Amino acid sequence: MERNGLDSRSRDKKAGLWIGGISFFLFVSFFIAPLISEPDTITDLSGRANAFDFHKENDQNFTWTDLDFYSATIYAFGDLNCHQKHERSWSINGNQMPVCVRDVGIFAGLALGGFIYSRKGVNRWTLRDTFLSVLPDQYMTNVYIKNRRTLMFIGIGALCVLPLAIDGFTQLLTDRESTAFLRLTTGIPFGFVLGLFFAAAYSARPNRFDRAGDVRLPGNVRFERAQDVEEE
To answer: At what angle do helices 137-145 and 149-173 cross, to 10 degrees?
Structure first.
């Protein structure tokens, strides 16, 4: 029997592996695509997020539609999802990477979060408790006994998100310009908590249990739904 009271955690493993695997594939591809493209041909990209800027020839010298299928797919992904500002991106082989440095960190964190969940996470009925399941049960006993789960859930999220928010908004609201190191190191924890959140969201399934009280939680705490209490 698993830590959550179920016989198997195969769904939890799959959820984490899918999140981690897809994110790791993209992360690695961000380095491979500029490396295998013709040197010094993808330069000075600067566009908009959530829009295609380099899918057809306008005034720019680069269009990802001219690349091989693999590289075109990766650069199209970056074109749609990232602003691709030249001054905030790395270059490899003389070619600008498909996404900015912060997004490189975010996808590294996404992969890490997904893989860690695949090893540690279990379905515990709610998204919050499934998310917290990656932490060792022996360290979570007091959190559950004192019912501080929501506080812990929000605290972990804030700890991982706030560095990126502070770094990003201070650039937006002031003349300050962040460094590549800061963009990378604030992107990783943001991506990490996002990877855990996505994996937990796919894994949390109440219908795997007969009733809420069957969920095994740290400190021998048990869920009780109102209808279960009324039936007793």
So the answer is: 100
CB atoms within 10 A of CB 85: 14
Under 8 Å CB-to-CB from 50, ≥6 apart: which residues?
80, 81
Average pLDDT, the chain: 92
Residue 177: burial class (beta carbons within 10 Å; 0-12, 13-18, 19+): exposed
pTM above 0.85, yes or no: yes
Identify the CA nearest to 4 among candidates 115, 112, 126.
126
Angstrom distance (rounded) from CA 129 to CA 217: 9
Instruction: In whole angstroms, give the CA distance from residue 225 to residue 190.
Output: 33
Mean of pLDDT values over 191-219: 95
Residue 13: which region, alpha, beta or left (left: phi > 0; alpha: psi -120 to 50)?
alpha
**pLDDT at position 31 over 90:** yes
Nearest CA to 206 out of 16, 13, 19, 5 is that of 5
> Helix/strand/coil (H, E, C) string of 21-44?
HHHHHHHHHHHHHHHHCCCCCCCC
Cα–Cα distance, 169 to 183 (Å, whole number): 12
Question: How far are the Cα atoms of 9, 85, 90 from residue 44, in angstroms, in the given order?
Answer: 47, 8, 11
Place of tokens 């859930």: 153
